[in-house]
Design brief:
It contains 5 helices and 5 strands, in the order ααααβββββα. It is of the alpha+beta class. The chain has a 5-stranded mixed barrel. Strand 4 and strand 5 (199-204) form a beta hairpin. Helix 1 packs antiparallel against helix 3 and helix 3 runs antiparallel to helix 4. The longest helix is centred in the middle third of the chain and has 34 residues, at 96-129.
C-alpha cells in the first residue's frame, strides 16, 4: 500500500518539493534569482481576475521557490493520505475518475494551505537573515532582484540584495512608500529609508523620490 503505483505521483511531488527545499536552503533562504513578484496583470472578461487567482495561490506573498517547494510537498503528502484512506474502501486503480478527483482535490487543498505555510517559513528565514537591529540597514544601498518593487499599499512585496556595514550580503523584502513616484525595476539601485513590520521601505537611488526624502529629513532635523 505504501509504495503502490497509485501513490507514485505523490511520491514524485514530495521528492521534488524536498529537493526544492534543499536548493532554497543552499541558496540562503530563497536565493538571489527568485522572483517574488509575478509580473502578470492579465485579467479575464469575467469578474474574476487572473491576478486575483495568483494572489490566492500565494504568488507575490512569499518567495516563489519556497512557495513551489511547500505546495509540491503538501500535494505529495495530502494526496498520499487521501489515496491510502480511499484505498481502504475502493480499489482506486480500477477507478480512473476517482484517481483524478484525488489528484485535483489534493492540489486545491495544498494551494490553500501552502501559501500560509510558505509565508510563515519566509518570515522565519527573514528573521534568521537579519539581527535584532534591523534598522542598521537604513541608508544602505541595495539592488532589486525581483521583477520590480511594488507600492506598500498593494499588499505585495519585492526583494533586494543589500550589503550591511560588515559587508554581509542580505536578501530582504522591500516595498516603496505610497508617496513614491518611481517603482525600481530588476537590477536597479535603491536606498533603504525605513522599516515597517519587518519590510523595508526603499526609494530609487538618485531619483526625485530620494531627493524629496532627503529634503524632508533635513527639514525635520
Amino acid at each position: 500500500m505504501l509504495f503502490s503505483p497509485a501513490n507514485l505521483p505523490y511520491w514524485i511531488f514530495l521528492g521534488i518539493g524536498g529537493l526544492l527545499f534543499l536548493l532554497m536552503i543552499f541558496m540562503g533562504g530563497g536565493g538571489q534569482d527568485v522572483d517574488i513578484e509575478a509580473d502578470l496583470d492579465i485579467e479575464t472578461d469575467g469578474d474574476f481576475a487572473f491576478e486575483d487567482f495568483l494572489g490566492w495561490a500565494g504568488i507575490g506573498k512569499a518567495p516563489l521557490l519556497l512557495l513551489l517547494a511547500t505546495d509540491l510537498s503538501l500535494w505529495g503528502i495530502i494526496g498520499w493520505i487521501i489515496n491510502v484512506a480511499l484505498n481502504s474502501i475502493f480499489a482506486i486503480k480500477n477507478y480512473p475518475l476517482l484517481s483524478g478527483f484525488v489528484l485535483f482535490i489534493s492540489l486545491i487543498i495544498s494551494l490553500c494551505i501552502g501559501r500560509w505555510i510558505a509565508q510563515s517559513i519566509s518570515q522565519i528565514f527573514s528573521e534568521f537573515g537579519e539581527d535584532v537591529s534591523s534598522d542598521r540597514l537604513i541608508g544602505c544601498i541595495g539592488t532589486v532582484t525581483s521583477v520590480y518593487i511594488p507600492t506598500e499599499n498593494l499588499g505585495k512585496i519585492g526583494q533586494i540584495d543589500v550589503l550591511d556595514a560588515k559587508h554581509n550580503l542580505l536578501t530582504v523584502t522591500a516595498v516603496i512608500p505610497d508617496w513614491a513616484t518611481i517603482a525600481p525595476q530588476r537590477g536597479e539601485k535603491v536606498i533603504i529609508v525605513e522599516i515597517k513590520q519587518g519590510i523595508y521601505l526603499v526609494l530609487a537611488k538618485d531619483s526625485p523620490d530620494e531627493q524629496n526624502w532627503l529634503n524632508n529629513s533635513n527639514s525635520r532635523n
